[in-house]
Amino acid sequence: MFVIPEREPDKRIQRLKDEGVHLYSFSMLSTINQCLYDAWATYVAHDRGLSSAYAEMGTCLHEITEDVISGTAQTSDMPHALKEGLVNIDMLGLNFPKDFRGEDSIRTRWIADMEHFCKTFYPPKGEYDVEKLLIYRISPTRAIRGYADLIRKNADGTVSVFDLKTSSNYKQEDLLEHGRQLTIYGMALEQEGYTVKSTAWIMMKYVELRYDWYATKRSKAKTPLVKVVNRSKIYGTLREPVLAACRSAGMDEPDIDIAMMDFANTNIMSDQFPEEVRGLFSIKPYVRNYPFTKELKEEALAYIDRTADLYESLDQNQDEPWPSRTISKDCEFFCHMLCGHRNTCPHIKEYDRLNAIPDVPELSDDDLF
């Protein structure tokens, strides 16, 4: 079974606690803003609640990817780690949501995306710090801590921050909410004396495709295209241009059929395609950049203080729960699938009773995250 190793205690954390500093994490700030009842149960009543399939698998894949980058594991270990993680969540009784038909297409697609990631991942070039503890001291009485997945030491003396994500790609309207974590990591590094060049997410479910093809069915000429797609959809996206490239290269039809069949099964352009064909298609991990600006740093700092002010103003009585968020269709997925207190929260149970919500909400893959 896949086991998540415990982090070694860091003396800097203990020193802050000894000073009486209010110590926050990005996940704690998010929980406070998302649902005060969840925050009370987690951080006041000290009930961490249940995990989820997404949380467990995200941790599993973070661990093995970081181990490969740091040189303590091999790329060949990645598919096995994924399989062990899936066995683990099954043993824990943690499930992916069903689709609108009540079937397992969401789980199937997620696994297909991550299997492709594990089979094709290669360590990025450069020197990296992995899982580095960062502490941003906001004031004499407040600090925020977090572990940055990857920090690249650039040749010009600057650093770049990367966060690994197994979630779905973020919608434009949600970028600020998710981007604050990268911004806070960047500010912590600046406080340590580094110059931050860039911040970005590595979206593990996706690839960036670059190739020449017709932009629309009506287009008369090929143009350079850039597309971000799920890893499980590479073949479906590239089928027609790859077929055309094979024929232009003079491949025999039987050889084309064999190569395309393998491509369809794996979403990998193997060496069954000649180099002149493979060279026409760039398939790279999707790195989504997020700006690191003065304005976003000011916004993140205001967010931290606003959230900490709220938390510290509330009664820290373990017997007096704080109010729940307003539960609606917009947050049903989180409440039913991701909240650690989904099986015990009285507000979720009352909402389900009043609205006759089934045990598992009907979702499409687009509803995730």
In short:
Strands 1, 2, 3, 4, 5, 6 and 7 form a seven-stranded mixed sheet that branches.
Note the total helix count: 13
What is the overall shape?
Answer: globular
Structural class category: alpha/beta
State the separation between the terminal residues, measured CA to CA: 27 Å
The helix content is: 40-55%
Q: Tell me the radius of gyration.
A: 23 Å
The fraction of residues assigned to DSSP E strands is 15-25%
In N-to-C order, the SSE pattern is: HEHHHHHEEEHEEHHHEHHH
Biggest beta-sheet profile: 7 strands, mixed
Beta strand count: 7
Unreliable stretches = 1-5
Mean pLDDT: 92
Describe the protein.
Strands 1, 2, 3, 4, 5, 6 and 7 form a 7-stranded mixed sheet that branches. Strand 4, helix 7 and strand 5 form a beta-alpha-beta unit. The protein has 13 helices and 7 strands. It is globular. With 369 residues, it is an alpha/beta fold. The chain has a domain of 80 residues. Helix 4 packs antiparallel against helix 5 and helix 8 runs antiparallel to helix 9.
How would you describe this structure in keywords?
alpha/beta, 7 strands, 13 helices, 369 residues, seven-stranded mixed sheet
Layout of helices and strands, plus pairs?
Elements: H1 11-18, E1 22-25, H2 26-34, H3 36-44, H4 53-70, H5 78-92, H6 105-120, E2 127-139, E3 142-153, E4 159-165, H7 175-191, E5 196-213, E6 223-230, H8 234-248, H9 253-266, H10 275-278, E7 282-290, H11 294-313, H12 332-338, H13 346-355
